[in-house]
Amino acid sequence: METEKKQAIINQYKQSENDTGSVQVQVALLTERINHLTEHLKTNHKDNHSRRGLLQMVGKRKGFLLYLKEKDIEAYRSLIKSLGLRDVK
Predict the structure, then answer these.
(1) What is the domain class of 3-9+20-83 according to CATH?
(2) Which tens digit of pLDDT belongs to each residue from 27-68?
(3) Among 25, 24, 34, 19, which Cα is nearest to 6's?
(4) Nearest residue to 83 (alpha-carbon basis) of 22, 15, 39, 35
(5) What is the largest CA-CA distance in the chain?
(6) Cα-Cα-Cα-Cα dihedral of 70, 73, 75, 79, to 10°?
(7) Taking the CB of residue 67, how many other CB atoms lie within 10 A of it?
(8) Dist. CA 79–CA 73, nearest whole Å
(9) What pTM was computed for the model?
(10) How large is the average pLDDT for residues 60-84?
(11) What is the DSSP letter of 15?
């Protein structure tokens, strides 16, 4: 991911001035990486190493979302709406 794109995502989802690691920022960055890797796997369908990495990232994002849902439901709802994600169970 390019530095400018990463910084734009951080600026959009940060909670305070020096925030780079809040749950919302991490979920947004993981979502961008997941989308990029999904496009890669559409053309390289035999790349099982990347597929495993994709599944790990999806699992990590799900864990972050479950944590956020438990701690702050309103922030969770606004985050999944802005990222276009489904509700996690």
Answers:
(1) mainly alpha
(2) 999 999 999 999 999 999 999 999 999 999 999 999 999 999
(3) 25
(4) 35
(5) 42
(6) 90
(7) 13
(8) 10
(9) 0.92
(10) 96
(11) S
